[in-house]
Amino acid sequence: LLFLWSIIVSIFGIGGLLGSSGSRYLTVKFGKKKCLLCNNVLMIVAASIMGCSKTAQSFEMILIGRFMCGVSAGLCVPLHHQYVGEISPKKLRGFANSTSSFFWSLGKAVGQISGQRELLGSRSLWPMLMASCGFPALVQLVALPFFPESPPYLLMHKGDQEGCKKAIRQLWGEGQHQAEIDDIMREKATMKNTKILSVLELVKEPSFRWQLYMIVILTATIQLCGINAV
Known about the structure:
GO molecular function: D-glucose transmembrane transporter activity
GO cellular component, one term: plasma membrane
Keywords: Membrane, Transmembrane, Transmembrane helix
Organism: Rhagologus leucostigma
Domain Major facilitator superfamily (MFS) profile: 1-230
CATH topology of the largest domain: Growth Hormone, Chain: A
Low-confidence stretches: none
């Protein structure tokens, strides 16, 4: 049982690794908005599977649901940062990106509180707790179609200048936005001369070795801060 529950807990991270590894390919091929919409559907399906696990008397459903949740979260984290940053005006971009970390922490806190036995962590309500991750996904699934695709994606990957201008006007209002479009064009020109490294190439690249060491040490030691014990 200990081994089984350990797998159920840790398989979320395995799904997250797979999801984040495929995020770049999917965003370039399908666009950030479409990927986020499909990702919401994946999370809702995962929440439904976990929510029905008690009725079906199947621990395998929890295992599958947790894995799918991990894949969805792995896709969502880089996607969300990119999409929010790209649809925000330049002066609000830093603030918009910082909201991701705030709501990430808030979500963890709400989950910890909701999981108490006095709330949704009881014997009868725990399936509802596991299915609750589908609610934010449902809200985004309903709201996101009213937002345009990311302007940089439309211009840089699709070459759709008119679509980019229309998206900018929809997001930022009417006005002169030529400076922002010029910035995107400069970024596109820079990217043509920049090689995109794979994960394996990044690990092997000597010039990034110390940055990589720092990230690995920070990520490993943050697990020792006591948050899981608390």
